[in-house]
Write a structure and sequence with these properties.
The chain is α/β, with parallel strands linked by helices and 220 residues long. It has four helices and 17 strands. 20% of the residues lie in helices and 32% in strands. It starts with a strand and ends with a strand.
Length: 220
């Protein structure tokens, strides 16, 4: 994980989209989209049914290495409001073991709005922590520091004839959008007008690598 500062607070960012907030003993992740594969299967598009377990196993690893006591899921934790009911037994057991040991907060997103909690944790529309708003979707024009998800930002570059795509964080002085953490999620180009409209001018795409944070200015 790579250190960086946002809104006067120190964080550690991982390439997979987990954001560690040491002062709060917390981990933040966005857009797990659990049970996305089973949602597609109901529509006749068969995908390997292992996305939820892969996502939760990676999350359990990040939880253990960071030693946190609180976790915030910034919305779209399930791909749809009934995704929780479709969790396979192994994935459900793993998730329940995590929610039982942590102060787990589900911030509700547009995909999982209205889902009934069967697996621990507590639901919230948004949460304020140390002067920073945690919500699913960035609020355009709000000057309060906020951390959100929703857009699954990715940085796409052309390098020596090769096209490279990486999960990225999109940041300004007051807004930070996390990449999607889920194993089966696509991404929206960090230069997309919808992202830039929400965050305002002065945005950068942040890409954590092994020992440093790469920063790429982005503009309309």
């Amino acid at each position: 994980m790579v250190p960086f500062s946002f809104a006067g607070h120190d964080f550690l960012a991982s390439p997979d989209g987990a954001l560690h907030w040491p002062a709060q003993a917390a981990l933040l992740v966005a857009d797990l989209h659990l049970e996305k594969a089973s949602w597609f299967a109901r529509l006749g598009q068969m995908l390997p049914p292992y996305d939820s377990h892969a996502t939760l196993s990676a999350l359990a690893h990040d939880i253990d290495r960071c030693g946190i006591t609180r976790l915030y899921c910034l919305g779209d934790s399930f791909h749809d409001r009934f995704g929780c009911d479709r969790l396979p037994v192994a994935a459900r057991d793993l998730l329940t073991s995590l929610t039982e040991r942590l102060d787990w907060v589900w911030i509700v997103g547009n995909h999982d709005a209205g889902f009934i909690d069967h697996i621990g944790g507590r639901l919230a529309e948004e949460v304020e922590v140390a002067g920073v708003m945690l919500r699913h979707e960035a609020v355009q024009g709000d000057v309060t520091p906020e951390i959100s998800g929703h857009y699954h930002p990715k940085l796409r570059l052309s390098m020596k004839g090769r096209h490279v795509s990486r999960r990225c964080y999109v940041a300004t002085a007051t807004k930070l959008i996390l990449p999607a953490y889920g194993a089966l999620t696509g991404g929206l180009d960090a230069h997309h007008p919808e992202i830039l409209k929400k965050v305002g001018p002065g945005a950068s795409a942040l890409v954590p690598v092994t020992d440093r944070l790469l920063r790429f200015p982005i503009a309309a």
